[in-house]
C-alpha cells in the first residue's frame, strides 16, 4: 500500500480537500436531525412561529452548505482518483522501460497489460470511494452514535450490539473472498494472453482453419473466469442480507423500546423523531462501509499485482561514474559463461574466450539453441555475463553508461519490430535528427529503397502496428536501415536477412563496406552464404566455441561447419542459388 500511495504526488492537495469537504458535509447532515428535534419540541409543540422560522432558516443554510460541500468533494475526488490512476500507469510504464530482459522475462505481456488497465481501474475506483465514503461513513457513524447517546444512552446500546455482529460477519466474508479475487485477476492474465495470441497470429489461425479450436480455448478461459467471479460475488452477496437484517432489527428494537420510554415520559416526541433519523444515518453509514469493504476486497489483489511491477528492481544498473564514450568497436570475451537463471547449473554459454578487432566482419553460425543470440545480447548489455568479462572498446561493458553503449552497439534483433507511424518515423528511431536524405541513403544500403520507391506515398507510407502491412523481407530491410542510421561502432545482425533472397543479402553485405567501413559487423545466420565472405566465422555448438577461423580453413578443419556447408550447397542450393 505504501508503494502505491507514493504515486499520489501532486494530487495530495485534491485528496485532502476531498476529505475536508466531506467532513464539513457530514457535520451539516449530523446537525440537521438535531435542529429538526428543536423545531418539534420548541416550535411546533409550543406554537412558537418565531422559533420555527429561526430554526427553519438555520436548516436551510446548513442544507446549502452540505450541498456545496458534497459537490466540491465529488469534484476533488474525481481529480485525485483520476490523477492517481494516471500516475500509477505512468510509473509502471516507466519502470518497465528500465527493466532488463531478465526482469521482463518474469512478467507476461498480457499480465503487464492487465496490471496497467484493469488493476489500475480497480484501484482508481477504490481510491475514489475511500477518500469520500471511507471518510464520510465512519465520521457519520461516530457522530450519529454520539448524538444517539446524548438523546438516550440505554436505547443506543442497540447500535453497539448491531455493530459487533456486523463486524464479525464482514470479517469472515472479506477473508474468504479476498483469496478468490487474487485468483480472479491472475486468470484475467490468461484471458488477455489468449486474446493477444489469437489476434497476433490471426493469419496462421485462418491458414490452418483453427478458429473453432481457438474459440473453444477462449471459451474455457472465459468460463473459468466466470466461475471464479460467481464464487467471489456469491460471498460478497451475503453482505446485503446481513445489512438488511441489522437495519430492520435496529429499527424494530428502537421502535419497541422507544415507545415504552415515551409512555414512561423519559423521552419526548422530538427525541424519538431525531433518533430515528440518526438510526437511518447509522445504517446508511454501515451500508456505505460495506460498499467500501467490497471495493477494498476486490482491489487488494490489484494492489499486490501493481506493487510487484513497481517494486521489481532492474537487474542492470549504471555504475557510479560511467564511461561516456566507446573508443572503438573491438570486442573481447574473457572466459565468459552465461545462464538465464543464475544458480541453476544450466549455462547457455560456457567459457567463451573470443577476441574481435575493431572493423572486422564476423560471421556466427550454429544449430538452433546453441547460444548465438545470447552471445550478442551480452555485447550491448541486454544481459550481464554470469562469469567472466565482456569488453567493448577495451573496457568492461559494465563500466559504460548503458545508453551510450547501446547507441554505439546497434542491434537488429531476431524478432524484427516496426511501430505504427510512417516509414520515416520508424527509420528515425535510429537517429531522430536524421534528414530525409540520410534516411534514403541508409535505405539504399539496406536495399529497402527499391520497394519504398514503388509505394504510392514512398517514405510517408503508414506502417501499421507491428509492421503487418509489409512483408517479412521488407520489414527486415527497414530494421537494418534503421540500425545503419545510428552509424554505430558495432553492428549486430541477429539472423536479420533470413527473409530476403541471397542476391539481396549479398548486396546488403557489400553496401556495409562503403556505408560503415570502420564498424565492427557481427552477422548471425543460418545460411553459409551469408557469412562465408566474413573475415572470420565463429561456429557455436551447445554454448561452446567449436571453431573460429576463415571460411576456407573451417571447411578443411571443422566438421560441423563442413557438414552445414555441404547440406546447403549439395542439396539444391541456398534459396535462389543453384547448387
From TrEMBL:
Q: Which SMART domains match?
A: AAA (SM00382)
GO CC, sorted alphabetically, is: plasma membrane
Q: Name one GO molecular function term.
A: ATP hydrolysis activity
Stretches of the chain forming a coiled coil according to its record: none
List where in the cell it is found.
Cell membrane
The protein's predominant localisation is membrane
Entries under Gene3D superfamilies matching the protein: ABC transporter type 1, transmembrane domain, P-loop containing nucleotide triphosphate hydrolases
Q: What's the protein's topology in the membrane?
A: Multi-pass membrane protein
| Record bears the keyword Transcription regulation | no
Q: Residue ranges of the ABC transporter domain? A: 331-567
Which Pfam families did the record assign? ABC_membrane, ABC_tran
**Where would you find the membrane-spanning parts of this chain?**
21-40, 52-73, 158-174, 242-263, 275-296
Alphabetical list of PROSITE patterns matching this protein: ABC_TM1F, ABC_TRANSPORTER_1, ABC_TRANSPORTER_2
Enumerate the UniProt keywords alphabetically: ATP-binding, Cell membrane, Membrane, Nucleotide-binding, Transmembrane, Transmembrane helix, Transport
Domain ABC transmembrane type-1 residue range list: 16-298
Domain of life (superkingdom): Bacteria
Specify the protein name. ABC transporter ATP-binding protein/permease
Q: Which organism is it from?
A: Candidatus Mediterraneibacter stercorigallinarum
Its lineage reads: Bacteria, Bacillati, Bacillota, Clostridia, Lachnospirales
Amino acid at each position: 500500500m505504501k508503494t502505491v500511495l507514493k504515486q499520489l504526488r501532486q494530487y495530495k492537495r485534491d485528496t485532502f480537500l476531498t476529505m475536508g469537504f466531506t467532513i464539513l458535509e457530514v457535520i451539516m447532515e449530523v446537525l440537521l436531525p438535531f435542529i429538526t428535534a428543536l423545531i418539534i419540541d420548541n416550535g411546533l409543540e409550543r406554537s412558537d412561529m418565531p422559533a420555527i422560522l429561526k430554526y427553519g432558516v438555520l436548516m436551510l443554510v446548513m442544507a446549502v452548505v452540505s450541498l456545496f460541500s458534497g459537490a466540491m468533494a465529488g469534484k476533488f475526488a474525481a481529480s485525485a482518483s483520476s490523477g492517481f490512476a494516471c500516475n500509477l500507469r505512468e510509473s509502471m510504464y516507466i519502470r518497465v522501460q528500465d527493466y532488463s530482459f531478465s526482469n521482463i522475462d518474469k512478467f507476461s505481456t498480457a499480465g503487464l497489460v492487465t496490471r496497467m488497465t484493469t488493476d489500475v481501474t480497480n484501484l482508481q475506483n477504490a481510491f475514489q470511494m475511500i477518500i469520500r465514503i471511507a471518510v464520510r461513513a465512519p465520521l457519520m457513524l461516530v457522530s450519529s452514535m454520539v448524538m444517539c447517546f446524548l438523546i438516550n444512552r440505554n436505547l443506543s446500546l442497540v447500535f453497539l450490539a448491531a455493530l459487533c455482529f456486523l463486524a464479525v460477519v464482514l470479517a469472515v466474508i472479506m477473508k474468504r473472498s479476498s483469496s478468490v479475487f487474487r485468483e480472479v485477476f491472475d486468470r484475467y492474465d490468461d484471458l488477455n494472453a489468449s486474446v493477444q495470441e489469437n489476434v497476433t497470429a490471426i493469419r496462421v489461425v485462418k491458414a490452418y482453419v483453427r478458429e473453432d479450436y481457438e474459440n473453444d480455448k477462449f471459451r474455457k478461459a472465459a468460463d473459468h473466469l466466470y466461475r471464479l467471479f460467481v464464487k467471489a460475488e456469491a460471498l460478497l452477496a451475503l453482505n446485503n442480507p446481513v445489512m438488511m437484517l441489522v437495519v430492520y432489527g435496529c429499527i424494530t428494537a428502537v421502535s419497541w423500546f422507544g415507545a415504552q420510554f415515551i409512555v414512561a415520559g423519559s423521552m419526548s416526541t422530538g427525541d424519538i423523531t431525531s433518533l430515528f433519523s440518526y438510526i437511518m444515518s447509522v445504517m446508511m453509514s454501515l451500508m456505505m462501509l460495506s460498499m467500501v469493504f467490497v471495493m477494498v476486497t476486490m482491489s487488494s489483489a490489484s494492489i499486490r499485482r501493481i506493487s510487484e511491477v513497481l517494486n521489481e528492481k532492474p537487474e542492470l544498473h549504471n555504475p557510479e561514474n560511467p564511461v561516456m564514450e566507446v573508443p572503438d568497436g573491438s570486442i573481447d570475451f574473457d572466459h565468459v559463461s552465461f545462464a538465464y537463471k543464475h544458480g541453476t547449473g544450466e549455462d547457455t554459454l560456457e567459457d567463451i574466450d573470443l577476441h574481435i578487432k575493431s572493423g572486422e566482419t564476423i560471421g556466427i553460425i550454429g544449430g538452433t539453441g546453441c547460444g548465438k543470440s545470447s552471445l550478442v545480447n551480452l555485447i550491448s548489455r541486454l544481459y550481464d555475463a554470469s562469469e567472466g568479462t565482456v569488453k567493448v572498446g577495451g573496457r568492461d561493458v559494465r563500466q559504460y553508461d548503458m545508453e551510450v553503449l547501446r547507441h554505439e552497439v546497434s542491434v537488429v534483433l531476431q524478432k524484427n519490430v516496426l511501430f505504427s507511424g510512417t516509414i520515416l518515423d520508424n527509420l528515425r528511431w535510429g537517429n531522430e535528427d536524421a534528414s530525409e536524405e540520410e534516411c534514403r541513403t541508409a535505405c539504399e544500403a539496406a536495399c529497402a529503397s527499391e520497394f519504398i520507391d514503388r509505394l504510392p506515398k514512398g517514405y510517408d507510407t503508414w506502417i501499421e502496428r507491428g509492421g503487418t502491412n509489409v512483408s517479412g523481407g521488407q520489414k527486415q530491410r527497414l530494421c537494418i536501415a534503421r540500425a545503419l542510421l545510428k552509424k554505430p561502432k558495432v553492428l549486430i545482425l541477429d539472423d536479420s536477412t533470413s527473409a530476403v533472397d541471397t542476391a539481396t543479402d549479398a548486396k546488403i553485405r557489400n553496401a556495409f563496406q562503403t556505408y560503415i567501413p570502420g564498424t565492427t559487423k557481427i552477422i548471425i545466420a543460418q545460411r553459409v552464404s551469408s557469412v562465408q565472405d566474413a573475415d572470420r566465422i565463429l561456429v557455436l555448438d551447445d554454448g561452446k566455441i567449436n571453431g573460429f577461423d576463415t571460411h576456407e580453413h573451417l571447411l578443411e578443419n571443422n566438421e560441423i561447419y563442413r557438414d552445414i556447408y555441404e547440406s546447403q550447397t549439395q542439396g539444391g542450393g541456398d534459396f535462389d542459388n543453384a547448387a
